[in-house]
Structures are given as structure tokens and as C-alpha cells.
Amino acid sequence: MKTEVLIVGAGPTGLLLAAELQLAGVSIRLVDKTIERSGQSKALTLQPRSAEILHSRGLLDPLLEKVERLPAGHFAGLPVPLEYSAWETRFPYQLGIPQARIEAQLEDHLRLHGVRVEGRTLIGLDQDDQGVRAEFEDGATIRAEWVVGCDGGRSAVRKLSEIAFPGRDGRFSAVVADVVVEGNESTSWALPSLVPRDGAVMTMLPLADGVHRVLFTGPEQQGLDKDLPVGFDEVSRALTAWYGEGVVLRELRWGSRFTDAVRQASQYRKGRVFLAGDAAHIHSPTGGQGMNLGLQDAFNLGWKLAAFVKDGVDLLDSYHEERHPVGAAVLANTRAQGVLMVPDDDVACLREVFVGLMRLPSANKWLAGLVSGLGVAYSPGDHRLIGQRMPDLDLGTTCVAELLRDGRPVLLELSGWAEAARVVVRPDGYVAWASDDPAAEWPDQAFTVRSKASAAVVTPSSERSLAAS
After folding, report:
1. How far is CA 64 from the centre of its chain?
2. Helix and strand element counts for the chain (H, E)
3. Residue 142's Cα: distance from chain center in Å?
4. 3-state helix, strand and coil shares in percent for the chain, rounded to the nearest 5
5. Interstrand relation of 132-136 and 211-217 (parallel, antiparallel or unpaired)
6. Cα(439)–Cα(362) distance, rounded to whole angstroms?
7. Do 466 and 394 fall within a single domain?
8. Any idea what the Cα angle at residue 104 is, between residues 99 and 108, rounded to 5°?
9. CB 320 within 8 A of CB 294
10. Quick one: which H or E segment has residue 324?
11. Are residues 444 and 460 in the same domain?
């Protein structure tokens, strides 16, 4: 069977990309170095924009059982919450869903459609005008028309494709761990504090079943090799130093080191090879943006790659053009957050000024949009809506998100909506074309012809309902 797209890496980014391509009828193979899930989660939350995209494909509902809605985000752990309610969204909150659950849900979804993760380690990659030949450690080869590297910060796809990964190495080291402690009664989410004290930072958040997530850094962590195992005694010392003898470590479930290294691939596409997720960008986890940025990469690339494979519609270069600046903005905001966490008297003054700015509604909304992805907009056009997220309007018996379930563009006729009379919505939920004229001719553009039946025309009353679902 011909493989149209080979996806290397079966984390959240690779799994969502596979789901998008499978939805469009693209022949795919999905490989990863290991098919055994650890059950551990580095990422803990879905940002509002990621919740929107999963909802628009019907993939969110199975994840909502026993989920905690986190009413606000944070910037550098400063004591002013980022309010999502200023944005038009059904999800004005983060969803406390660990990465492991998201991976399991996406993998189950793919399995129902005949797609399984193959355990293979990539060691060679060569491309020509017709496709790409991938070689694996077990001696197997796969010939595909396209390859997408979703294989993390040490991406084999990126290295074998000789794509530059400029940036800088980490300047400090920190630890993230899941622990069981005695003496901490916290059972509900609270805004984390990352304000340094005596050269150290510590925050602890409750997960489930008595487990807490801790993130800390201090003098002891600096200079340690990133691959050095995190030990029980190290975590215990950090907890005691911060909380005193009242908090006692009983169990270390999992621990890992990370740094504030920042790097971004110079190109997200090289011929027939693409990069997405951590393969394309790495940054500190401050603000909980990493997994979400990767999911949003996959959502942007999936429909464009499918449109080319199935219909010859070439929008492939726009993937780099749209997503590279978004990745660069995330790298910049995580670096800024890192500066605000530096234990320095002058930085303390900067934090005080920044907290004042965050209390201004317009500044708070801008930061919330930056961290959540709700503020992402692409190239503008001759109408104010072009390049913007399309609000999930209530259309009477349906809504915009439900019309996007099949991954095709949607044409909307909207009576009474102040923003536009006619709108073309891309499969990823952004506005491709809009007009205030209810009689305007629909555009004859490539993105409207996917599979020759891509458009659904709806004529609703445009009363808007964005109540949290």
C-alpha cells in the first residue's frame, strides 16, 4: 500500500496530525521509537485555543470527564491572573487534562480508524523529486511522498534533513516532578507562584489521587547534566528548603530536568520534509505552552498537506510562513518570563512594574491571547476578519465548530451579524475570506475546493452564544 505521509513521532503533535490526515483520507504511517506509553505527563493543561481545535473535530468530549477548569492563566507566575473571558471563546479557561490522557485519547481514536503506532527508530532519510526514503534501525525502509518530523527537541528528522536549529543553550536548570507528600492540604488549583526567594523558585500544584506536580530550581540544580536522574533526596531537600519541615516527601513518582534553552528551526519545510512541535522549536515550559503550540502546528499543517495530496492544492509554503512567527513569539514570551523570575533586586522592580501593567484590561487580554493561542492571527486581507479566528457562532441547530467536524472549509451566509455577511472559514477555523455584502460572489480560491464538496452554506440568525460548554 502506498504511503502518502510518514509521521515520525507519536506524541500529541504527531497523533493530532495523523488524525487530521486520516480524516481527509490520506494514506499515513505513524512511527515512534517506542510504542509503550510511560503514563507520565510533562504537560498538564490544554490552553483555550487547543480546546477549541479539538472541539472542532469532536475529539474533546471524551477528555472532559473529571476535568478541572482552570479559570485563568499566568505570566511568569506573577500574582495577576490572565483572564481568558475577554476573548470570544467557548473555553474561557484552561482544561486540566494531562498530556498522557490526550495521547491515549488520540491513539484510541486513530486505532478505531485503522491507524496504529509502529515502534521504529529512524536512522536515515533521503528525498528526491518523487518522495522520501526513510531507513530504520531494524532494517526496515518506508517510501513516502512526504515526511513530517514530530519527534521532539532532539529530532532525528531535523538532523537527518540538515535543517539548522539556531538559538542558545540553557542558562539555568530546573526540575519537574510528580510526588506524593505529607503535610500539604492543597487539593484544588491555584495560580502558581514563580517569584524567586533566596535564589530559588518552587511551585506545587495538585493533580489527582494525592499526587502533586512540583517545579523547582535553586543553586543545587545549576550545572547538573540534563540527563542526570532526579533523585528522591534532591526533591526532598528542595521541598524542605521552601516549605520547612511541615511538608514531607513520601514518594517520587517521576522526575525530569529541563533548561531555558531556546531554539527554532530555520525552516519548517525543506522540500518534502516538514517539522512540527518540539522538532521545530524548544523553549522553557513557563506558561504551559509547549504541547499546545505543537497541537496548533499540527492543526495548521494537516489540512494543507491533505489538500495537496488529495487535490493538488498547493498551500504548503504557507505552513512555515504562518507558524514560524507564532513559534518565534512563544520563544520570546518564555524568555521574557524567564527574566522576570531572575532573583535580582532590579528584576524585582521590573516585576512590580509588570504587575501594574497586567492589571490593565487591554494588556491582560493581549498577554492572555499570547499565552493561550487565542490571539494568533495570520496574514490580513482586504477585510478586517481575514486571518482572524472565526468565533464559534451559535447557528441555531448547529454552530461553526460542528460545521468544521469533517475538516473541510465552510461557507457561511450570516444574516444580522455585525462583522460580515459572508465568510469562508478555513478547516483550521481561521477566516480565509469575508465580505460585508450579502450578495458578494464566493471567491474562486483553492481552499474552497477540497474534495469538490468542501462548502456548507448556512443562513442563520446570528445571535451569538459562547457560554462555556
Report:
1. 18
2. 10, 23
3. 28
4. 30, 25, 45
5. unpaired
6. 36
7. yes
8. 150
9. no
10. helix 317-340
11. yes
pLDDT tens track for 405-417: 999 999 999 988 9
Q: CA end-to-end span of the chain, whole Å?
A: 42
Rg (CA), the chain: 23
Phi, psi of 122 (to 5 degrees): -70, 130
Pairing type for strands 132-136 and 422-425 reads: unpaired
Q: DSSP letter at 107? A: H
Count of residues making up the chain: 469
Q: Which residues, in sequence order, are bridge partners of residue 132?
A: 127, 144
Q: 3-state class of 391 per DSSP? A: coil
Cell of 406: 469533517
CA 12, CA 184: separation in Å to the nearest integer?
32
Range of the domain at 233: 173-259
Question: pTM of the entire structure?
Answer: 0.91
**pLDDT for 192 beyond 80:** no
- The least confident of 25-34, 38-47, 110-119 is 38-47
Distance, CA of 340 to CA of 7 (rounded, Å): 37
- CA 326 → CA 91, 206, 330, 333, 365, distances in Å? 21, 31, 6, 11, 17
Q: At what angle do helices 12-23 and 99-112 cross, to 10 degrees?
A: 30
Based on the fold, state whether residues 14 and 150 are members of the same structural domain: yes
